[in-house]
Specification:
By secondary structure, this protein is α+β, with helices and mostly antiparallel strands. The protein contains 13 helices and 14 strands.
Length: about 450
């Protein structure tokens, strides 16, 4: 009998450090091999056009060219309506107007919907067989298990495209006044691509979307201010040409321009600071080399890059640092990944069953010791049960199966702390009292 334990490690291992097309192709190849389908594909839906566009298509262990097809009179139309569609046999008889199924000689069909974070169906994952399907329930369960991760990757790609489009538009509108900011955004996009390839930050899709939101607000104010200044200047120029410009109107117009210009400058400065903080964290996270860090300056920069994503979840993150410089030799990339993964884990699990009135908090505390440093990451959430604590560092163990959780986050953290960082990792938790992850790192 097929079992998840038999195939999950193999599939998840093949997905490590893959994103976008590489992720979809790798997962589709693995699923196709495990379920023995004649065709396996992942597709995005266009509800307005009632069409589906494959983003990864596999047959006989090979990646085929993607194609678009109409959902009319197809079983995929039922899946797009948020229904799991299982037909072990006679699919062509049930859908006689689906000429593509008939031409391909398809006998069995299994399809599972893909939902975005808002619960809307945005895609499907499908298996086609030229013979009767014998293990349909297992295949459907396997598809549902990975549907959350596939949906998250599709949504991450769309948010990244939105960010790129937004940056291009804003760069054109404020290019004369934001040369330095434009350079920073280009660097942000470059370092963002590097982070995606090397998987140096946890939940990158949410992080980029949060940064984009934070940058969009001050830039939106700046664009609006620029438009108001332009309109005011045009009006003053027109009145001047008509010889109808009074001293009062001139003074009023200049005061308005001065006030708007101040607001624009403040917001552009705020946006530039956000990009600078994110860029610094990205650069640090992109190097495996040892470096001497001033933790009093480095930690706030890392926290600033995590804040946008946490703000979207109404989680406040703070730091508690010594009142002196703390120089420490370590690997910034590994330390950044450890902290980011733990914070991401807290955000995902700590506040699931907490009261809405609870002020959600995460605090990072740095202490110096004679043998090294102590970094504590604490939350005030619901705590972790003893049973979960016994398994939480095991690979593939997760309480979010089917919701995008792979069970690798804390396992990776544990391996990095005890391996590359040569340190120790401890967990303290109690019901409704929150959880503390303490990292002990020795001096090198």
């Amino acid at each position: 009998m097929n079992s998840f334990e038999q195939y999950l490690p193999q599939i998840i291992k093949s997905l490590k450090a893959t994103y976008g097309a590489d992720f979809f192709n790798s997962l589709t190849l693995q699923l196709n091999q495990v379920i023995g389908a004649d065709y396996t594909f992942i597709a995005k839906l266009d509800a307005q056009r009632n069409t589906s566009q494959t983003i990864s298509l596999v047959s006989d262990g090979e990646i085929l060219d993607n194609f678009e097809y109409s959902l009319h009179d197809t079983p995929c139309a039922d899946v797009s309506g948020n229904a799991v569609c299982i037909h072990p046999e006679n699919i062509a008889v049930l859908y006689p107007n689906d000429l593509l199924l008939i031409e391909m000689g398809i006998e069995g069909y299994i399809g599972t919907p893909l939902q975005d974070s808002a619960g809307c169906v945005t895609g499907i994952v499908v298996a086609l067989y030229k013979h009767k399907i014998k293990n349909a329930d297992f295949i459907a369960s396997l598809f549902e298990l990975f549907s959350g991760r596939i949906s998250a990757e599709i949504e991450r790609e769309e948010k990244q495209q939105q960010l790129t489009k937004l940056n291009a538009t804003l760069e054109e509108k404020v290019k004369l006044r934001t040369a330095e900011l434009s350079d920073s955004i280009e660097n942000l996009l470059f370092t963002q691509d590097q982070l995606i390839e090397q998987e140096k930050m946890a939940s990158l899709g949410g992080l980029v979307a949060g940064v984009a939101h934070e940058i969009n607000t001050p830039l939106g104010v700046a664009v609006l201010s620029s438009s108001i200044i332009k309109e005011t200047l045009l009006k003053l120029s027109a009145d001047l040409e008509k010889n109808t410009l009074s001293k009062y109107e001139l003074q009023h117009g200049l005061q308005k321009i001065k006030k708007i210009e101040q607001a624009m400058s403040q917001n552009l400065s705020k946006a530039a600071t956000l990009v600078k903080n994110f860029k610094q964290v990205a650069v640090d996270s992109n190097s495996d080399d040892l470096a001497t860090l001033d933790l009093i300056r480095w930690l706030p920069g890392l926290v600033a890059s995590l804040k946008p994503t946490l703000n979207n979840q109404n989680i406040n993150i703070t730091t508690k640092l010594p009142n002196k410089k703390v120089s420490f030799v370590t690997c910034p990339a590994h330390l950044s990944q450890v902290i980011s993964n733990i914070v991401s884990n807290c955000a995902m699990h700590a506040f699931d069953q907490c009261q809405e009135t609870l002020i959600r908090q995460i605090q990072i505390t740095l202490k110096t010791k004679s043998s090294g440093i102590s970094l504590s990451i604490s939350d005030n959430g619901m705590g972790i049960t003893k049973d979960i604590q016994r398994h939480m560092f095991e690979p593939f163990y997760t309480t979010k199966r089917g919701k995008g959780g792979t069970g690798l986050g804390l396992s990776i953290v544990n391996n990095i702390v005890k391996g590359a960082l040569n340190g120790e990792l401890m967990v303290r938790s109690s019901a409704e009292q929150g959880t503390t992850f303490e990292i002990l790192l020795p001096y090198r």
